[in-house]
Specification:
- The chain is of the alpha+beta class.
- The protein has one domain.
- It has seven helices and 15 strands.
Length: 279
């Protein structure tokens, strides 16, 4: 494979500057364990280095997501263990609610929204329902609520202004109910080539059903220019968000490689670079 100039630059920077210390906020946890995070627990293969990311960025926030100490099982929203697949390498320490709402696209929406909320970028929190209607958090915070009738959405002033975290979570549940892979595939910007992939991008196969996975970290080999991707997903029925296991690797690590022109197979879903999207 030809070297990609930008990946070599990332590797040189990685050698010069250490990775940033965890300084992010995860509002669903009172005090996350800074030593129990993706960057601490998920090692990179020999001859690879994590790419350098900007402090305060979505990439940095994803890389420091807290992980559960018990990594062997994932659970559904109803408390039952998942038996339909064994795709988890590690489990993200985040609540999934008690309803069948937080599925694959919803997991990505949740993480993106939580990041923006943690940075107090409230006016940037906005997603699209499957109907094509926009769901702005600012409108929800100001007391408006969606009323859905015959695939049309009307926002009505029904509550007082509420900027609390609990109200924000109610907003997300509303988005989870009316958004999915179909709306996400249309809402996010298409990335023309996997050569340009970034942490925080998503592979989205829009449909009824479809599937979506999120790029949570990346590593590069300076000598070859090869890029590795760390992928996380939610699933149906709603279940723990988890780092996806790569059964084809001999070292047991969960990193995936996707050279241009190839496909990425996750369980029975097959993604191509045509499915790569960006917020």
């Amino acid at each position: 494979m030809l070297r990609r100039p930008f990946t070599i630059l990332f590797s040189l920077l990685a050698a010069l500057y250490p990775q940033s210390v965890q300084s992010n906020t995860y509002n669903w946890l009172p005090s996350p364990d800074s030593l129990n995070t993706i960057i601490q627990l998920v090692k990179v293969p020999d001859d690879y280095d994590r790419i350098v990311v900007e402090k305060g960025s979505f990439a940095n926030w994803l890389r420091h997501l807290p992980l559960k100490k018990e990594q062997d099982k994932i659970y559904q929203y109803d408390g039952n263990p998942v038996t339909t697949h064994n795709a988890n390498y590690a489990v993200v320490e985040i609540d999934i609610g008690d309803s069948d709402l937080l599925q694959c696209a919803d997991a990505i929406i949740r993480l993106r929204a939580e990041f923006l909320f943690s940075k107090e970028l409230h006016n940037s929190i906005s997603f699209t329902f499957t109907s094509g209607d926009t769901a702005d958090y600012k409108k929800w915070r100001d007391g408006y609520r969606p009323r859905v009738k015959e695939n049309r959405v009307e926002w009505l002033k029904m509550n007082a202004v509420d900027s609390s975290y609990s109200s924000f979570r109610e907003y997300l549940d509303s988005v989870f109910m009316y958004a999915g892979t179909h709306s996400m595939s249309r809402e996010l910007k298409k990335v023309n080539s996997v050569d340009s992939v970034q942490i925080g991008d998503a592979f989205v196969l829009g449909g009824f059903p479809g599937h979506a996975v999120l790029v949570a970290d990346m590593a590069v080999n300076a000598a070859t220019g090869r890029i590795l991707l760390l992928l996380i997903q939610g699933f149906t029925p709603a279940q723990d968000i988890h780092i996806i296991k790569n059964e084809s690797r001999n070292d047991g690590l969960p990193w995936f490689e996707m050279p241009p022109g190839t496909t990425l197979e996750i369980l029975h879903w097959i993604f191509s670079e045509e499915h790569l999207r960006r917020f």
